[in-house]
Write a structure and sequence with these properties.
Shape: globular
CATH superfamily of the largest domain: Periplasmic binding protein-like II
Largest sheet: 6 strands, mixed
CATH class of the largest domain: Alpha Beta
CATH topology of the largest domain: D-Maltodextrin-Binding Protein, domain 2
CATH architecture of the largest domain: 3-Layer(aba) Sandwich
Oligomer: single chain
Number of helices: 19
Distance between the termini: 14 Å
Low-confidence stretches: 1-20, 22-49
Radius of gyration: 23 Å
Number of domains: 2
Helix content: 25-40%
Strand content: 5-15%
Number of strands: 12
Structural class: alpha/beta
Strand order of the largest sheet: 1-3-2-4-11-5
Length: about 450
């Protein structure tokens, strides 16, 4: 069995095209307010005359931190006199492939904000990025404001490479308008699957869809929590050796739990053919009660409550007040307050930049700035970070749903990484793409799980 232990610290904080920044650009805030005061002078101010570094991140498109990144990047440029060639793009499989290809062809950036799991294996194995320990040998204060225990270890060699900024959590959003119509209370910290199923029946009897999910398109969140509910935080990140061993049986039971909910009629009638966008719309339009999704969905719900999704000034506060976020119902050894979450991405400095003396200084300065105590909270907002000293929350900087998320997170008893991030690619086809066959009984859950395990072991 393979196991990856993830320990996390919760920290609530403040709220695709080529974009280059110039030294004359106006900073988002005065340099003295945003610079990392813990960084040595030679890290914060590289060689005079300015250096251009190539930076690739996922802070682009509809990412909620895209503007925060641009502001911080421009402020760093203005403070140091350096420039950035920014090739950031929205995170998806195409982006991942592009990054891997860039490393293979020698076109990698100087600084990369990327995943720290198996997606990074190939360029770590190739020695294309520099470990935090190696950087600290020359810059002792590099990432010194971070809790090292919360910085993920590489799956390749156990070393730490990526300095994290913001993390994620997966929880259950609720449409209180639907719950009120069905006479159901907003679930709390002691919510169980039995109570959830009883609530779903009330919701269905009232003429609403209990669960917004597209099992034929994005079964990911239910897949993850169904397995989690048949295991525990202690063993969730173990990959079964067989569908017959203890972990394998938990996976099979999880698939059958989803099948039971499907048979009870608690998913949308078209759950096997609908898209995730369609079922999300059911939730925001008051047709479905529950939605399991990630912290990134807060922004999507807020946007759905705006007359103009691009203009926060058009927010309908009354509509947003109808939404809340709470814990996913628990079962067995998993409490409802045990959530899936983690710090899955971070800043890498490439060997290419490290071997260039001028770019080495600039790259270290840039990452130090972007991961400083002053900048990280702007990105982390209502999620998680690895900062040793997270600042206090100024609720005036957040919308009501973000504040509800912070309240929910204050009661979390553990965060455990997603096992699907270890059980990747073709391994998941039989249970992800095959979910419609499992819930309709065309394929036995045990056979589907075993098929995925066989693919995993053959890799």
């Amino acid at each position: 069995m393979k196991k990856k232990g993830i320990a996390l610290l919760l920290a609530a904080a403040f709220a695709m095209s080529m974009i280059g920044c110039q030294g004359a650009a106006a900073p988002a805030a005065p340099a003295a307010d945003t610079a990392d005061s813990s960084a040595p002078a030679d890290e914060a101010a590289p060689a005079a005359g300015g250096v251009e570094i190539n930076v690739t991140t996922t802070f682009a498109g509809e990412d909620g931190n895209a503007q925060n990144f641009k502001d911080a990047m421009n402020a760093w440029c203005a403070e140091t006199g350096n420039t950035v060639a920014d090739t950031s793009a929205t995170s998806d499989e195409t982006f991942k492939t592009r990054v891997i290809t860039d490393f293979e062809t020698g076109s990698e950036p100087d600084v990369l904000f990327f995943f720290n799991g198996a997606d990074a294996n190939s360029f770590i194995e190739a020695g294309k990025v520099v470990s935090i320990d190696d950087i600290r040998a020359e810059y002792p204060d590099y990432a010194s404001n971070m809790n090292d225990d919360l910085i993920a270890d590489s799956l390749v060699d156990g070393k730490k490479y990526a300095v994290p900024v913001n993390g994620y959590w997966e929880a259950m959003f609720v449409n209180k308008e639907v719950l009120d119509a069905a006479g159901v209370s907003v679930p709390g910290a002691d919510y169980t699957m039995d109570a959830f199923k009883a609530d779903c029946k009330k919701i269905a009897d009232a003429g609403y869809t209990p669960i917004a999910a597209a099992l034929g398109n994005i079964p990911h969140y239910w897949w993850e929590y169904a397995i989690f509910n048949n295991g525990s935080p202690a063993n969730h990140l173990e990959i079964p050796a067989s569908a017959d061993d203890a972990i394998g049986q938990a996976w099979v039971s999880g698939m059958n739990d989803i099948k039971e909910l499907y048979e009870l009629g608690y998913f949308p009638e078209n759950t096997l053919s609908a898209t995730d966008d369609e079922t999300f719309a059911m939730f925001t339009e008051g047709k479905a009660a529950f939605l399991i999704d990630g912290s990134w969905k807060v922004g999507g719900i807020v946007a759905a409550c705006q007359a103009d999704p691009e203009d926060p000034a058009t927010l309908d506060a009354d509509k947003l007040a109808k939404f809340d976020v709470t814990y996913v119902p628990g079962k067995g050894d998993r409490k409802a307050t045990d959530l899936i979450g983690g710090l899955s991405m971070g800043y890498y400095i490439t060997t290419k930049a490290w071997d260039d003396p001028a770019k080495r200084d600039a790259a270290v300065s840039f990452v130090s700035y972007m991961t400083s105590d002053e900048i990280v909270p702007k990105f982390a907002q209502h999620t998680a970070s690895a900062l040793k000293n997270a600042p206090a929350v100024d609720e005036s900087a957040f919308n009501p749903l973000q504040i509800k998320a912070m309240s929910m997170m204050s009661g979390v008893t553990s965060l455990t990484g997603a096992v699907q991030d270890l059980f990747m690619g073709d391994c998941r086809v039989s249970t992800f793409d095959g979910m419609p066959e499992i819930v309709t009984g065309k394929v036995d859950a045990k056979d589907a799980v075993q098929e995925g395990i066989d693919v995993y072991q053959a890799q």
